Amino acid sequence: MRPPYPPSPERSAELRRRFAEEARSERPDLSTLCLLVGAEADRELDEAGLDAAQVELDRLAGLLPFRPGGPRAWAVALRELLGERMGFHGTPGDYQRLESSLLHEVLVRRRGLPILLSVVWLEVARRAGAPVYGVALPGHFVVGFGPDEGQVLADPFDGGRVLTGADAELLVAGATGSGIDPSMLRPADPLDVVLRILNNVRAWAATRPERSDVALWAVELSLLLPSHPARLRYERAQLLVQRGEFVGGASELEAYAEVVEAVDEAAAERVRGEALAARAMLN
């Protein structure tokens, strides 16, 4: 499969405008945000492709039985449709592919990272009226159905397997070495889901220096979210320097140093030193 590459600067600017607008809306739409991420990653994803992905989610929702029952019945219905009938699931190899973090590709390949497969479950279930939400367990994203006292969890990466309490404990223990905390089972905010997806993209790019373009757009989209870690500004500055944009990178480093200085003067001085080093590279 061809590696995805970002679109033209003009197309990218329009996509980012729409992404920022959607992220700041009263009720951000998860599928729209994920597809805009996909369009920023893949120049081949045009407006027709964006519409086709939404239509596919609608189609899948239409294949679910009408209101099958309580939370467990919903979880089973989604597993039978998406996991068994449609074949959505994940494999270890999916962690090595950028496409595994792009919703439009996951809909075609029916493979992806846990969080992207969970987005498919969430968007299909939501369209069908299920009481569904994302659950951001440490190291492994799953979906939840129903209220706290009757919560049912399912793992889309494992084909939608309905999890027991012991299953959830094992997932958390494998990621953290400790037990599960009730706070881990709370519904995930859609914008937090998008930020986690972009974090996965950045992690993919971090091991591939030749794809610093991917790391840069993932950081820049993250910075468009209403709430994001301040350190992303520092990461963006480092990427600019890495890509040979020394003046821009140095300016970003100096601006970040101003922010950091209020809480950590020593760190601010180190960042200013990096800015000086970046400017020196122009000579």
What layout of secondary structure does this protein have?
Layout: H1 9-23, H2 30-41, H3 47-62, H4 71-85, H5 103-109, H6 114-127, E1 132-137, E2 140-145, E3 152-155, E4 161-163, H7 165-176, H8 190-206, H9 212-224, H10 231-242, H11 246-261, H12 265-280
Antiparallel strand pairs: 1-2, 2-3, 3-4
Distance between the termini: 41 Å
Tally of contiguous helical segments: 12
Strand content: 5-15%
Number of strands: 4
Order of helices and strands: HHHHHHEEEEHHHHHH
Oligomer: single chain
Broad structural category = alpha+beta
State the shape: globular
- Evaluate the radius of gyration: 20 Å
**Average predicted local confidence, pLDDT:** 94
Q: Tell me the strand order in the biggest sheet.
A: 1-2-3-4
Helix content: 55-70%
Main beta sheet: 4 strands, antiparallel
- The low-confidence runs, each spanning 5 or more residues with pLDDT under 50, are none
In short:
The protein contains 12 helices and 4 strands, in the order ααααααββββαααααα. With 283 residues, the chain is α+β, with helices and mostly antiparallel strands.
Question: How would you characterize the overall build of this protein?
Answer:
The chain is of the alpha+beta class and 283 residues long. It contains twelve helices and four strands, in the order H-H-H-H-H-H-E-E-E-E-H-H-H-H-H-H. The chain has a four-stranded antiparallel β-sheet with strand order 1-2-3-4, sandwiched between helices. Helix 3 packs across helix 6. The chain is globular and about 65 Å long. The mean pLDDT is 94.
